[in-house]
Amino acid sequence: MSSREPVRSLGRIRAVTFDAGGTLFAPRESVGETYARFAARYGVVLSPADFQKRFERAFRQAPPLCFPGLPAEQIPSAERSWWRELVAAVFAKDQPAAFEALFDDLFTYYASANAWRVFEDVRPALERLHVRGFALGIVSNFDARLFQICGELGLARYFRSIVVSSRAGAAKPSAEIFRVALAELGVDPAEALHVGDSWEEDVLGARSAGLHTLWLHRAAEPSEDRIADLRDLGMRLADDADR
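RE: above sequence
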């Protein structure tokens, strides 16, 4: 099967939502490399591999990045506190005396485009879908820094809706965060397609809310429910006249 051969056509789709990290963009360097580089400025010398293992363990053990019922004015502080606790767990007993300054540096860095790279298939795919009239959105387990990141990366202009778990009060794979996006886009679940790189969070989560799904796996051959290149989305989606 050719990597560009359509497998299944999705008709009557009016909106397409995407995951953010791992789907639209990724860190320019590994988290371990970034943490090692920033930590060295504060006298903490550990290998990138060590930091990577610590981060992955802390991230797995962290609670969902959402704050159901919390008043909106308290969410920015809650977002910082969530990340501060995670970063503190990464450094553990190796926290420098100036840990607060180190945390501020990391938190600020990951809010900027300098920390991220856009996958090469993203902009062409978004441009084509945008021109064809699809309503586009993002559904991500992220905090409000995603709005700044998308703006600096030049992606924000494509999206009618950007829903982050910290503001939605629910995190993927919960169906609720997808319902928030559907409401903002003004479409029914059967009229929406979600694309992401996580089987549990993106595929199973979106399906639980009634959306169509495609699992993005750039290292695999495409199949009926899997896509390897976002530029191939156009072949899966019907033209305006067919919607």
